Amino acid sequence: MHRPLRVALIAPPYPLSEAPSPPLGLAYAAAACAQAGAEVAIFDYIVRRYTPEKLRRDLDSFEPDVVGATSVTMNFLAAADIIREAKRYDPSLVTMMGGPHVSYDVEGTLSRYPEVDLIVMGEGEKTLTELLPHIAEKGSWPKIKGIAFRRGKEIVKTPARPLIEDLDSLPFPARHLLPMSRYLALGYPVGIITSRGCPNQCIFCLGRRMVGAKVRPRSPSRVVDEIEELLGYGFTRINITDDTFTANKDRAKAICGEIKRRGAKFVWSAFSRVNTVDPEILAIMRDVGCDSISFGIESGNPEMLKRVKKGITVEQARAAIRYCKEAGIGAHASFIVGLPGENPETMNDSKKLAEELGIQYGYHMLSPFPGTTVREKIDEYDLEILTDDWNRYDANRAIVRTSSLSDAEMNRFLDDFLLAIEEAWKEVLKRYEDGTATPEETFKVDALSRMELMYKLLSEDVIEEVGPVSPNGREPVGELALKIAPLTRFGPDFIARALGPMAAAGHLKFETENGNTRWFWTHNKRVDRL
pTM score, two decimals? Predict the structure, then answer.
């Protein structure tokens, strides 16, 4: 009897500054592969250190037939290099990639990376369930909608696959294949979708193209079933990652009603648009645990908002923030620097609006990702793209310029903003050091330090590499903290306080052998060994 097809899916490295959480799209893909009858593993290199040697050990241990990776533009090169390494190590593997970047850079990916056998374009779940039973039969690939591959020197793109109308037909994301204890230790919220689809036409965004213009909802009962599953893992904070949770207020109310009916207790955040909220919906959301909403305002200049087809007004932004404050919900606004036609005046308009709103806000540099209108129709805009080095598409430094604004000027604008934040933070740290910080400041310093510590321990495999810990009369967590302290910038007492709750919850455990203890992160009741 033949063993089932084995599929290894890869979560490539992702920086701490991008707030990594359990990779939702990859977990959906894993569930689809399992639904197709495959045996599936996820090689997570977000909260585990990636090395080629570790990849080879993972491949030897699981012995997959197929290796796939997802990525966004900023970590595409890392993902492609991992696929390249896997193919070199075992040329018999069928290799594939999916995600927003490769979906709109098919030719670039397949021409530059011969190690990538095929690309799953766009929404991938139904494509995977149809593809995997025939993955070894390359002659059948042209019959599968939604993929691209090489046939000799020709790049073949099959017809687009229709979007999934009934999202309730999808299995829950296969998060049990992820090292969830590690994500709990990192402390970021876990993501969930309640719908797919974006009716808006912003020229800088991929949302509409990836998930369609029509909003396709999941049923409130199905959404809250998944929320309860997440709470069972131990998460207490959830982020709804829909493009616009409040796009349909009646549906948002129904989800909130189902949360309340079941008595689910957790805090949550969501993405929204300033023209889709009002006092009523915000009060309902706040009543069932919503404490934060992120708005993409993008610019404080009315003409710029029209140019980029944002579909909102500055006055709507002011009203939405006022409503959030009245409801007791924290609001965050993001602005983009470097939009087409940007000039010193439009940048200053954004600065004035951001400061006027009196909330947390931040700036992103425009990153014209493959597939965005602004990139594909660049000749129609006052904009020049300066690089196709995908590693620089992290929205942290300027990679464009306009006729009125250089990339250096954009960077100076952002640097001035960041310098003010840095100087204010230095004052907080000074008060923290001399014991005069407010309770809120103390909490922020400790929380950020804990996050930095955990990310180092996880992404660099520090706990695994220290090896056995000899008892010195201390509590086991204290012994571990003492041994790993020299590998970090933190003292053993702080480390012990950070690790204690993880050990108490069973996410971090140890075994004793010959009088020594060896620590390891658990993996959903199974040991996550390296």
Answer: 0.94
